[in-house]
Design a protein that fits this description.
Chains A, B: Keywords: Antiviral defense, Endonuclease, Hydrolase, Magnesium, Metal-binding, Nuclease. Chains A, B: Its EC number is 3.1.-.-. 2 copies of one chain form a homodimer. Chain A has 2 helices and 5 strands. By secondary structure, chain A is of the alpha+beta class. The first copy, chain A, has one domain: Alpha-Beta Plaits. In chain A, strands 2-3-1-4 form a 4-stranded antiparallel β-sheet, covered by helices on one side. The longest helix of chain A has 15 residues. Chain A is globular.
Chain lengths: ~90, ~90
């Protein structure tokens, strides 16, 4: 199963802390390809574990996390324009 | 063909202007679902036209635009966590 995860974490209510933790959890399970975008090949149990870790950090009213799932990576093609930010270790770490 | 477009536009070099124009172009062709994330059903000629309009605004060294394509929407499932930002008209307009 191939997954693309995008998040938009609000700054309010200690958002920086939420963002830092959400970033770290996503990075544990997926590949960081752009500012708040991750992708990767995973399986249902890995995905369930990642979501379980993420939930406490997502503010239901302020934040937005979207997970796209495709059964096979080959059903998805990817085009890059501009610079390729894949897995550039950002200042969160 | 189903498309997910994510962008990360740097603030440097008049980034706000680039971001405003990239946002408007994406919004013309796709659905705005989160901060810098768009999706939608489209066709090759529409996609080519969108990319042609986008290119002049993407700074090759500073910005990143990624387009994921799936031949069919049904090959992609989507999960929302937190608030649903789909097509909330943002302050760019």
């Amino acid at each position: 199963m191939y997954v693309i995860l995008v998040y938009d974490i609000a700054e309010e209510e200690n958002g920086t802390r939420r963002q830092r933790n959400i970033f770290k959890i996503c990075k544990k399970y997926l590949i960081h390809i752009q500012n708040s975008v991750f992708e990767g090949d995973t399986n249902p149990s890995h995905l369930a574990r990642m979501k379980k870790e993420l939930m406490p950090w997502i503010d239901k009213n302020l934040d937005s996390v979207i997970i796209f799932k495709s059964r096979e990576e080959r059903w998805l093609t990817k085009e890059f324009y501009g610079k390729d930010e894949s897995d550039v270790t950002s200042n969160f770490l």
